[in-house]
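To fix ideas at the outset, we first show an illustrative case, written as a sequence plus integers encoding its fold:
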Amino acid sequence: MKLTTVCLCLWLGSAPLPMPQIEKCRTAPLDETFSQAVSSGSFGTHLAAIESMRNKCWHDYEFVWRAARAYVYAGDLLYLQAIAHNLQGIPATQVKTLLKRAAKFDKSQKERVYQMGKAAVPYAMRAVELAPQRIEGQYYATGAISLYAIRIGLLRAIREGLWKKWKRAVRASLHIHSAYSEAGPLRAKGRSYFAMPWPLRDLSDSENWLRRAVRRAPLSARNHLYLADTLYRRGKPKEALPHYDRAARLVRPLPNGKLSHYMSIIADIQLSCLRRELAQQ
């Protein structure tokens, strides 16, 4: 055999094997079961379907961001449920009492919310890894980390590097699509300045970001509710009142099942309390 032939054979190698076909994940059924879960407030079946697809679909961006979304929504439902439960039956005469009580989760409440965040974080981070230019992964990463931090607290979140990841995700979300999910990135940024402990809390920045959220998505009950909370804390109860009222009015027709139910309870309680408070002044 001539040398040139040998070299040619070595360069070509054997006949190439066909490339393995990566199975395309069917995400359309997940959208259907997600809508059903949001409407009913029961995420068990939807989350089970996601876990059954995890190994097969870990490479698929369209799957992992939807998985993150599912756990974030399930955790958010538990979060709102806990707040509504904490506020009911309190003979409060001032909204500040309600705001303090709303933030006091008991151990079991924290654990349930934390578990949803813990499950959501790997999916959200995988989505960010696969497509950092897409909004869904970045946005649900902010929600996943926020839920995860409910139990562990800010200091541990900083030690674990989650605080930096949260800030990167929010920054990316604002850059990519600040109006996504009813101005969710703007709302998350504004609420963070409200919820942070001193000295990181900045109510002025919170108001500025939440006013932007309301302007971008004026039909979002949550945007109005969060802006009202911030305005009240800033000593502007009369400015807060129309936003509490708007939140209470907007939340009722929303087709979000239990999410709307708990949002309605929270908005109604805080609106009624502020009206009594202002009437006594």
In short: The two ends are 104 Å apart (CA to CA). Residues 61-87 form the longest helix (27 residues). Confidence is low (pLDDT under 50) at residues 1-21. The chain is about 80% helix and 0% strand.
